Amino acid sequence: LIGVLYLLRTWLLRGRRQTVVGTWDCGYIRPETSMQYSSSSFAEPITELFTPVLRTEKHGPEVTGFFPRETRFSTHTSDVALEKMFRRIFLFVDRAITPLRRFQHGKIHGYLLYIAVTLIVLLIWKA
Question: Which contacts of 121-125 are long-range, i.e. CB under 8 A and separated by 24 or more positions?
Fold first, then answer.
């Protein structure tokens, strides 16, 4: 049956010009990197839901019409937990530990002295 269909197709198309084209691809014949989904595309519904908390910044004009000209659009959502909480905690810890940095000088003899003094203090404390 396959052979008969092949011969029939060949006989019907004899003398006609045949061209090879791609199937319909919704207008994406040559995809570019700008057409790819990004992490923003997947996270957009959630960031839109929490807009009052996250304060997502949108940059670029609104796209209008059926055939808009080339334009650029970007969004930026800052990390609220990092900016409001963790950064302040880390700055506080950094300021609190800064005086201890003088003990970290890179000399092995000093580090061995610290270990020996710590062991002696612990032995005296335990005794």
Answer: none
**Stretch (H or E) spanning 2:** helix 2-12
CA atoms within 13 A on the CB side of 53: 9
Query: Of 58, 54, 60, which Cα lies nearest the Cα of 78?
Result: 54
Distance, CA of 69 to CA of 36 (rounded, Å) = 19
| Secondary-structure percent of the chain, ordered helix, strand, coil, rounded to 5 | 55, 5, 40
The whole-number pLDDT of residue 28 equals 67
User: How confident is the model over 15-53, as pLDDT tens digits?
Assistant: 888 877 777 777 666 777 777 777 777 888 888 888 888
In the beta sheet, which residues pair with residue 74? 59
40: number of Cβ within 10 Å: 14
In the block, tokens 């011969």 appear at: 7
CA atoms of 48 and 56, how far apart (whole Å): 8
Q: How far apart are CA 97 and CA 86, in angstroms?
A: 16
